[in-house]
């Protein structure tokens, strides 16, 4: 990228429509919430009201406590108790109740 900086920079956001990459310090990689599309609640016909879960945002990610809030029939807002590193649009998020998968969706 040809950028000089006193500390390492990380890709924070890709804006493909503008042909732009946003870079920043590591602390900007941490997010406390994300939006989910293609929501599929395996154990419920639909998500009604807020629900406490553990959520994984990648394969080796340790499940983190979160609350899912429905936005529509197939969209939800996920709020983590603690900020999570590298929430990545286009990746899957999986929701657990203990060791049981109860749903998931695509990170927007």
Automatic annotation (TrEMBL):
Segments forming domain tRNA-specific 2-thiouridylase MnmA-like C-terminal: 33-107
GO molecular function: ATP binding; transferase activity; tRNA binding
Listed Gene3D superfamilies: Translation factors
Source organism of the structure: marine sediment metagenome
Any one biological process term the GO annotation gives: tRNA wobble position uridine thiolation
A UniProt-annotated Pfam family: tRNA_Me_trans_C
InterPro entries: MnmA-like_C (IPR046885)
Coiled coil: none
UniProt protein name: tRNA-specific 2-thiouridylase MnmA-like C-terminal domain-containing protein
Organismal lineage: unclassified sequences, metagenomes, ecological metagenomes
């Amino acid at each position: 990228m040809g950028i000089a900086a006193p500390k390492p920079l990380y890709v924070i956001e890709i804006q493909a429509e503008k042909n732009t990459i946003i870079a920043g310090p590591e602390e900007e990689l941490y997010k406390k919430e994300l939006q989910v599309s293609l929501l599929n609640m395996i154990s419920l016909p639909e998500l009604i009201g807020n629900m406490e879960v553990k959520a994984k945002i990648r394969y080796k990610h340790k499940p983190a406590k979160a609350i899912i809030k429905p936005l529509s029939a197939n969209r939800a807002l996920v709020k983590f108790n603690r900020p999570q590193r590298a929430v990545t649009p286009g990746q899957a998020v999986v929701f657990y109740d203990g060791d049981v998968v109860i749903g998931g969706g695509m990170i927007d």
